[in-house]
């Protein structure tokens, strides 16, 4: 199936929410267990949270749209803790579209949305080897590790990766 990357809008919230439920369970149930994944979905990926991110000033929220369904999504925004740095908060592709270049296309769009940024940063669950490999192929390198991915007391360790953006 062919997907085109475009800016997300309010009408996409329900499809993105369904995509995130499917993708989170597929990706993280084996790492954290289904109960923890449900809690993460409720706090990080509720329809209200998706709506807030789509409307966030300065951020860019995109979807890969086939005209029939949403095959992936990505969200990035300036990183307040570091000047000229953008945080890639989310990039998820539904399981049936993984490996087809959808994630690469979403990233390619997000990479160009912040012309003043010099670095893009992403935090990846330490056990998510497939995602770490994906970001490495895009040119990201590990710069740090953290014990509390996604918030205080999460108990979810992560790898912090960065990529220099083209100027």
TrEMBL record:
InterPro entries for the chain: Acyl_CoA_acyltransferase (IPR016181), Bact_Acetyltransf (IPR050832), GNAT_dom (IPR000182)
Domain called N-acetyltransferase: residue spans: 3-166
SUPFAM superfamilies xrefs: Acyl-CoA N-acyltransferases (Nat)
One GO MF term: acyltransferase activity, transferring groups other than amino-acyl groups
Listed Pfam families: Acetyltransf_10
Alphabetical UniProt keywords: Acyltransferase, Transferase
Protein name (record): GNAT family N-acetyltransferase
Species annotation: Endobacterium cereale
């Amino acid at each position: 199936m062919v997907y085109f990357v475009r800016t997300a809008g309010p009408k996409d919230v329900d499809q993105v929410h369904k995509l995130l439920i499917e993708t989170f369970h597929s990706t993280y149930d084996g790492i954290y267990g289904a109960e923890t994944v449900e809690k993460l979905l409720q706090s990080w990926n509720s329809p209200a949270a998706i709506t807030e991110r789509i409307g966030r000033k300065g951020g860019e929220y995109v979807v890969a749209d086939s005209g029939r369904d949403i095959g992936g999504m990505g969200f990035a925004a300036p990183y307040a803790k570091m000047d000229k740095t953008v945080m890639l908060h989310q990039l998820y592709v539904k399981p049936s579209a993984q490996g087809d270049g959808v994630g690469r296309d979403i990233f390619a769009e997000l990479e160009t949305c912040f012309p003043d940024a010099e670095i893009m940063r992403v935090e990846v669950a330490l056990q998510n080897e497939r995602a770490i490999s994906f970001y490495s192929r895009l040119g990201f390198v590990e710069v740090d590790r953290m014990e509390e991915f996604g918030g205080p007391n999460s108990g979810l360790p992560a790898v912090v990766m960065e990529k220099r953006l083209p100027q």
